[in-house]
């Protein structure tokens, strides 16, 4: 209980507020631009396939269930678009599809931050699952080495969230650049796409801030104990 109720909880307040705002911003912005069709009337999956073809990236585009579950799978080399994106002609859908294409291009070109992030996936998963329990058990049984191991594991998970930022920002930058260059969207529509991707970027910033603040909490608590 000591871990959950102490003054260091205040460190998480900014991250919580940013996270709530990011969730609201993503939902409202995507909803707004999901209702606006692009003038080219191309579906998001068609845009994605055309981008991949023009960039000479041989990756299939598939539909995946769920809402905004869009992702590029680097292990199976597949770009998957959610039901809210695949087959849709909206500005929001095209922006998301182009962003995911950015990740496929990063993978094809061996973008260094992406390679680091992909390599850290198992470490991050392992660390995020075990770190807090190890720290708590270390506090309960007054065993500092266990706390330190937990903090190290959590730090690996934090690094994963931090290295994710340049990967996501670069994918959005590439998406906006190609949407403009290939005229998939008009300048006015491009402004909407930029707002959609900026809103999505906030969620990654919030996650990174929350992870960093929680790591700081663990370090402060371990030093006090």
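Sequence proposed for the structure above (225 residues):
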């Amino acid at each position: 209980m000591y871990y959950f109720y102490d003054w260091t909880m205040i460190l998480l307040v900014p991250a919580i507020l940013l996270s709530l705002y990011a969730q609201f911003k993503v939902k409202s912005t995507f909803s707004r631009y999901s209702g606006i069709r692009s003038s080219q009337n191309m579906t998001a999956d068609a845009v994605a396939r055309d981008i991949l073809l023009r960039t000479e990236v041989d990756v299939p585009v598939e539909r995946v269930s769920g809402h905004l579950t869009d992702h590029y799978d680097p292990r199976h080399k597949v770009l998957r678009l959610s039901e809210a994106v695949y087959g849709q002609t909206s500005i929001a859908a095209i922006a998301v599809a182009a962003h995911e294409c950015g990740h496929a291009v990063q993978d094809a070109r061996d973008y260094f931050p992406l390679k680091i992030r992909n390599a850290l996936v198992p470490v991050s998963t392992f660390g995020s699952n075990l770190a807090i329990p190890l720290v708590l058990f270390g506090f309960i049984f007054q065993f500092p080495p266990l706390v330190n191991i937990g903090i190290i594991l959590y730090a690996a998970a934090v690094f994963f969230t931090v290295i994710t930022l340049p990967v996501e920002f670069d994918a959005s930058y590439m998406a906006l650049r190609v949407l403009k260059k290939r005229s998939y969207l008009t300048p006015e529509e491009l402004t909407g796409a930029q707002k959609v991707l900026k809103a999505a970027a906030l969620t990654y910033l919030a996650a990174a801030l929350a992870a960093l603040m929680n790591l700081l909490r663990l370090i402060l608590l371990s030093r006090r104990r």
